[in-house]
Amino acid sequence: MIEVQNLVKHFGPIRAVDGVSLVCQDGEVFGLLGPNGAGKTTTLRMLATMLQPVAGTARVDGHDVLRESTEVRQAVGVLPETVGLYGRLTAREQLRYFGRLYGLADAALERRIEELLTMLEMADYADRRCEGFSKGMRQKVALARALIHDPRTMILDEPTAGLDVMSARSVRDFIDRFRQEGRCVLLSTHVMSEAERLCDRIAIIHKGKILVQGTPDELRQRTGEENLEEAFVRLVGEE
Amino acid sequence: MQTTITIFRKEILDTLRDRRTLYAMIVAPLLLMPLLTILPSHFMVSQMKKQEEEHIRLVVVGGEHAPELVAYLEGTGQVEIVEPPTDLEGALQEGDIPAALAIPADFAEAIAEERPVMVTISSDASKMASSMAASRVQMMVQSYAQRLIAQRLAARGLDPSVLTPIQIKSQNVASEEQMGGSFMAMLLPMFIAIWAVVGGMYTAIDVTAGEKERGTLEALLVTPASRLQIVLGKLLAVITTSLSAVILSVSSMYFSFRFFPVETMAREGEKVAFSLPPQTILLIVLVALPLVVMINSLEIAICIFARSFKEAQNYIVPLQFAVLIPTLPLVMVPDLAMPFVAYAAPIAGAILSFRDLLTGAASGAALALTVASSVIYAAICLSVAVRIFRRERVLFRAA
Known about the structure:
The structure holds 2 protein chains of 2 kinds.
Chain A: E1 2-11, E2 14-24, E3 29-33, H1 40-47, E4 55-60, E5 63-64, H2 69-75, E6 76-79, H3 91-101, H4 106-119, H5 135-147, E7 153-157, H6 165-180, E8 184-189, H7 192-198, E9 201-206, E10 209-214, H8 216-223, H9 228-238
Parallel strand pairs in A: 3-8, 3-9, 6-7, 7-8
Antiparallel strand pairs in A: 1-2, 1-4, 4-5, 9-10
Chain B: H1 2-16, H2 19-53, E1 56-61, H3 67-75, E2 79-82, H4 88-94, E3 99-102, H5 107-113, E4 120-123, H6 128-155, H7 176-207, H8 209-214, H9 217-221, H10 227-259, H11 278-303, H12 309-324, H13 328-332, H14 348-359, H15 364-390, H16 392-395
Parallel strand pairs in B: 1-2, 1-3
Antiparallel strand pairs in B: 3-4
């Protein structure tokens, strides 16, 4: 579970995140929807303990991101905005490396790697070096990396950005599956239709502030627009 | 600790699969330095020998005035007398002939009257072959003059030894090993410093700016590994590549000195032997270790600022100069005397200690000062690197 209250982050004079509050329950997919530069990535990075908030509080599974960052890191699986892999390592070697960093070892680690390779259908290229992998293959390795320690909470930054139709679809299927498994999923996207399809609840974020949040139906009701994209354009345009 | 080892092992695996690292860590230190230092001097020696043995195509102008001298020159077997060309100066400048000897018309008369006479040897001093030929001709003319002196002294009933009342014999009290040590002291400190920087350079860039460029840094930062563990793991990997480069370059240099003695370095009659007792090697390693840690920490601290591999390479160039400059005075003035405090100077202190160890002039106090100060510098650089690695503004500089 992720609980965020009045989270603030400045970069110099820029208020990248300006008082964001939200709660994402276990078994729920929560979408941060907003244009580029709205503060989505900065919010997610604070929750993943990469950046430190200047005000407000955030807890992941009850652990404070500032004071208990080690526990938070152990609890959360992160898919960063840029999916980078070590080109000279094989997919399996990357997973082994990150598994060890999360404290897994030996047979348990190898078993977990096999599980993920099967689940993500990566067995074919598990022992190939990652340089030259397609975007879809890379995204799978990155997803497996985020899942290596079987985290209850997942933070996914633009999980389908830049993927082809089939790869994007399979990533969306995995997110559905995470929900069924009872994980708490917080993701960001700038694609309306994706948010509508994937998320139980959505927060529309703009210039560091959450304009509105609720289920897709609630958002439609509140804005009086049938189409979520229209609702989004109206909300963002009013600012 | 386990996490640091995990990171260290991954970085080593990763870097060993990188051809750039392999080149900087193994191939270059093993081959480049011996090739750069030994080949040219061998080439020079063989070139000089060749020119010494070559026949000189000598133009003699006015040879008819001194038939005895011309016969003497020909008698040495090193000279081939050729006809004067129409444009003598031009032929010299073109390199057609290496040297010319002009004999005045009153040569025979002057010799007979025992008054000084001047001959002219012309050459083009901008050409090595020409100036060497000229000096050889000059030596031959001088030895002909020596013969004349001997004849004149004999005519007066004097022994030629009256002209050399004092004879000088040079004696070198340095042992063969000391001679070898002084040669090594000119080059090895520089090698150690250079390869400490260059050997670990690619790894240092790859584990910092490289992570940023590939976009792998975020995934690493969200793992439970602490910033200190990450920096230590990466530093260990850089130290490993850096140290292997240092060790390989020094040993390849040492063995090339040993097995291909450099003739140009020693003056005639001097003997040179290269040997490093285990105790000296141990002390060199003791001084080199903190130096390497310090340089590698600096590399990591500098490179983490960069957003890309290329940018990091630009940042690291000044460091190469900073390390190279203190080594230069020793190459030029090998026995430069420095005050005691100089042994505490960063980098330069270690360079001085390497020299002293190689020449056998090391004092325990100076060594202790160097090692202690280097350890402090290394600790400072390491803490700077860790501090920089904790700064989010550095880690998330927009690409």
